[in-house]
Amino acid sequence: MRLVCLHHIEYADSTPSEDEVKTSVMISNSLPATNSEELQLRRLDLEHQKIDLELQKERCKELQLQLQLKRLCAQNDKVMMLTNSSVGQSLAWDLNLRS
């Protein structure tokens, strides 16, 4: 029996990049597996890396949506300010006509 070292890296807020996963997969694929336990460990490690990559993609989508929401809120605020100033100007104009 031979020991197999699987690397597990923990990230604070992010998961490994696609390049890191591909590199890790290439390295793990280059190791010859001698028994079913090693194969099973390699499969589990690859599954873990795939899930990490999917989570990273979802997090990226979430951040893009948050950014889009902030932009829309800023646009909405500008429109509201313009609308409020227009309403204020027309009220002042209307009051001047009545005087």
Automatic annotation (TrEMBL):
Residues 36-66 form a coiled coil. It comes from the Eukaryota. Keywords: Coiled coil. This is Uncharacterized protein.
